[in-house]
Amino acid sequence: METGVLDNPTNHICFEADASIKSILYTKEELDSAVANLGKKISNDYKGKELIVVCVLKGSVIFFSDLIRNISCDCKIDFIGASSYGCETQSSGIIRMYKDLDLDIKDKHVLIVEDILDTAKTMDYLIHMLKGKKPAGLKICTLLDKKARREVDVSADYKCFDVANEFVVGYGLDFNEEYRNLPYIGILKEEKYN
Ligand code: IMP
Question: What pLDDT digit, counting tens, does each position of 66-124 carry?
């Protein structure tokens, strides 16, 4: 048997980080299917419009790259760098923007793609910042929605899943910059951050 490959029917790679996961919330197959469905919906809604899909670095990069390959209408892509977490599982509430857009979004339809809406302070900040650039429209797409922790009135126009108030990692989401490479979303064992 090839080293590192589980002897199971789905032939998933065995990750070192698997040992840090309490339980798997969404498998790769569930994520693939949800992202494909969302891509179809977005494609229908934006057909014939000038669409710019914006990836919020770094957490949404995997979701974003899968999502845009399921968007069949013409679109451009761009990246914005913003974060509200240092190395803790609680938001500091202070948003650090470290990369602005490269494209001009004036009069274009912008879809912001985020990994998770938690307090939504990051998204609130991005909405205000991007609205100042006068886009024709601005909508929010998130992979996960952790509604129980919302602190500002922001809701997603498109989303894959609601999640409970637990710290999740994988499929781009990290703790202290680790676990982003896991192909599934799992709940991190509390001993890893307590
Ligand atoms: P918000 O500003 O509180 O909504 O925070 C959003 C950001 O916090 C996300 O883009 C994530 O980077 C991070 N975050 C919130 N909850 C989690 C989680 O459960 N796992 C990993 N990152 C999270």
Answer: 999 999 999 999 999 987 755 567 667 789 899 999 999 999 999 999 999 999 999 99
- Which residue has its alpha carbon closest to ligand 1 atom 20? 168
Task: Please report whether residue 66 resides in a domain.
Answer: yes
Secondary structure string (H, E, C) spanning 125-158: HHHHHHHCCCCCEEEEEEEEECHHHCCCCCCCCE
- Tell whether 104 is covered by a domain: yes
Q: Closest ligand 1 atom, CA of 119?
A: 3
Q: What is the pLDDT of residue 10?
A: 54
In the chain, what is the straight-line distance between the N-terminal and C-terminal CA atoms, in Å? 37
CATH classification at residue 57: 3.40.50.2020
pTM: 0.92
Structural domains of the chain, count = 1
β-strands 51-57, 75-83 pairing: parallel
Whole-number pLDDT of residue 88: 63
91 CA closest ligand 1 atom index: 3
Q: Is 190 part of a structural domain of the chain?
A: no
